Amino acid sequence: MSDVDKWYRDYWARHRAREVVYKTLRARCLSCEDRAELNEYEQVIFDRTHGAERLLDYGGGDNRLKRKFVAAGFKGRYETLDLSSEETHEYSSLGEVRGEFDAIVCLEVIEHISLNDYVDLMDAFGKLLRPGGVLAVSTPNPLCVVPMWAGDPGHVQQYPIADLAADFVIRGYEVEAFRVRYGAWPGGVRPRLRFFAVRALCYLLSVDYAQGIVVVGTKIKTRKDGSSGV
Fold first, then answer.
1. Residues 175, 130: contact at Cβ < 8 Å?
2. Mean pLDDT by groups of 10 residues along the chain of 230 residues
3. Is 2 helix (H, G, I), strand (E, B) or coil?
4. How far apart are CA 195 and CA 93, in angstroms?
5. Contact in structure between 133 and 102 (CB atoms under 8 Å)
6. How far apart are CA 7 and CA 74, in angstroms?
7. pLDDT at 224
8. How far apart, in whole angstroms, are the C-alpha atoms of residue 229 and residue 210?
9. At 93, phi and psi to the nearest 5?
10. By three-state DSSP, how is residue 84 classified?
11. Partners of 73 in the beta sheet?
12. d(CA 65, CA 43)
């Protein structure tokens, strides 16, 4: 077996979902600037998860997002998992996690693992997430004119937005997707003109100026009559 065989077990189902996603998905661009309060990208995730009684942040890192969520009024249990011991986290592996969650966020992690490991991770998230719960996953945008390896040599796998969204769909999620521009939106005449020139050039070259993507899925509930709903 190769290190991608698990991904190809659902290839045709994902391929069919991808064709639908291409026609229907509208991924507006969000800004992700470095600031103390929630930025536009983080606000979108907060708006969809702030009511969670229990949230898992897989890849919590330096706990910056946790601090921002709490400052913004998050009242639930915000639990973090990270391999690093540089910060305090509730978990260092998924094997330690027990119970179910109303929300899971996994930001800038999946590009560091193989496709098989991604499949295993998404399987685990599906088991941990309650019906009606929200899963948010972000990763670099492979369509960006700047390659993802330019900023981190630890990146190993790319996920086109349509393929990632399609994988959510075949796993039973209602999906939203966004593109993410690192940094603030330009202010002033000259920076704005330069930005619009970059956008126009990217359009002509069929590439993207947005460096990241985020897919947000709501796990579909199955009713007693067998029908589904969010």
1. no
2. 86 95 93 95 98 97 96 97 91 95 97 95 97 97 92 90 97 97 94 94 95 97 53
3. coil
4. 41
5. yes
6. 35
7. 45
8. 32
9. -155, 155
10. coil
11. none
12. 11
CA dihedral over 33, 34, 39, 42, signed as positive or negative: positive
Contacts of 108 (CB under 8 A, 6+ apart): 59, 138, 139, 140, 212
Please tell me the predicted confidence (pLDDT) of residue 106. 98
Radius of gyration over alpha carbons of the chain, in Å? 18
Look up the CATH number of domain 7-229: 3.40.50.150
Our CA angle for 27, 209, 212, nearest 5°, is 60
Question: What pLDDT sits at residue 44?
Answer: 98
For residue 155 the two structure tokens come to 């990146």
Single-letter amino acid, residue 32: C
CA-based nearest residue to 181, from 47, 64, 41, 60: 41
Question: Which residue ranges make up each domain of the chain?
Answer: 7-229
Burial 173-191 (b: 16+ CB within 10 A, else e): bbbbbbbbbbeeebeeeee
- Whether the CB-CB separation of 104 and 133 falls below 8 Å is answered with yes
Task: Say what the pTM is.
Answer: 0.92
